[in-house]
Amino acid sequence: MPFNALRVLSLESRRAEEMATLIRKNGGDPIVAPSMREVPIDDNPEVFAFYDALINNQYDMVILLTGVGTRAVDKVLATRREPGAFAAALRNVTVVPRGPKPAAVLREWNVPWAVTVPSPNTWRELIAAIENRPECRVAVQEYGKSNEQLLDALRATGCDVTPVRVYQWDLPEDTAPLRDAALKVCNGEVDVLLLTTSMQLPHLARMARDEAVFRAALAKVAICSIGPTTSEALEDFGLKADMEPTLPKMGVLVKEAAEQASDIMARKRK
Predict the structure, then answer these.
(1) Backbone angles phi, psi at 9, to 5 degrees
(2) What pLDDT, in 10s, does the model give residues 224-257?
(3) Residues in contact with 49: Cβ distance below 8 Å, sequence separation at least 6, in sequence order
């Protein structure tokens, strides 16, 4: 069953045009409002302090949360260190990539890793995968914002944890489409919300003039999350995802959201 002309809001940034096309192909009326831009931290002393500690054997384990963040560490270090310095240092420590993207970077760099985290690669699977490991001095390459649940869970096991913040998410330079999207939500002009990363909804909420009206309006919208990590962020916001796709891929999300959205909306608006 297609969207049947439902108004579908996507907050996708890098693949905004592709998302709009997918929504149209599945019978929806797309509203695409880029919600994020990736902002490198230019003055990043934490990365250099992390590297110096790493080469001086002050960490037993390095957890890499994202491929982009892993490359960002390397890029920052390359401004003052020899090319390949980060990869060389990682070969002397226990490395744990959270999912396939940082693992792909390690494979490209010929860096072995000690633990493979099973799908869907949330902090819970990560903690379970490293349970009973002997390493206790742990550095965590962060992404977007700190995952406090992961950091707290590591500390609860007795680990000495060092977060390494490499880049952050900020609002897009042009916030007009996002502001307009927030207004549409508040006015009841959005039927379906598609979320593909954890920071999209918080950025949309920042654009809402009245948070209470915004939250009340979202209660009538079919909220479709690409996977558990994004759904967890929803729960932090006091909401729950109405559906997750069978595979955490953008095309599958749109197709299965189209199939389920009408039923979800009927249930929520009853």
Answers:
(1) -95, 125
(2) 999 987 887 787 778 899 999 999 999 999 999 9
(3) none
The residues, ordered by sequence, that sit 6+ positions from 20 with a Cβ below 8 Å of its Cβ are: 10, 30, 32
Long-range (24+ apart) CB contacts under 8 A made by 152-159 are: 153/123, 153/127, 154/127, 157/127, 157/131, 159/135
Pick the CATH number of 42-169 from 3.40.50.10090, 1.10.260.40, 3.40.190.10, 3.40.50.700: 3.40.50.10090
Whether the domain at 7-35+171-268 and the domain at 42-169 fall into the same CATH topology: yes
- Complete DSSP assignment for 187-208: TT--SEEEE-STTHHHHHHHT-
Cα distances (Å, whole numbers) of residue 126 to 29, 65, 66, 114, 157: 38, 10, 13, 12, 13
With H, G, I as helix, E, B as strand and everything else as coil, classify residue 129: helix
What does the pLDDT read at residue 9?
A: 98
Which residues, 6 or more positions from 260, have their beta carbon under 8 angstroms from its beta carbon? Answer: 222, 224, 242, 243
Highest mean pLDDT among 108-112, 122-126, 145-149, 261-265: 108-112
* pLDDT above 70 coverage of the chain, percent: 98
* % the chain with pLDDT above 90: 76
- Reported confidence tier of residue 268, pLDDT bands at 50, 70, 90: confident
Which amino acid is present at 201? L
- Mean pLDDT, the chain, rounded, equals 93
What's the CATH architecture for 7-35+171-268?
3-Layer(aba) Sandwich (3.40)
Count of other CB atoms within 10 angstroms of residue 167: 22
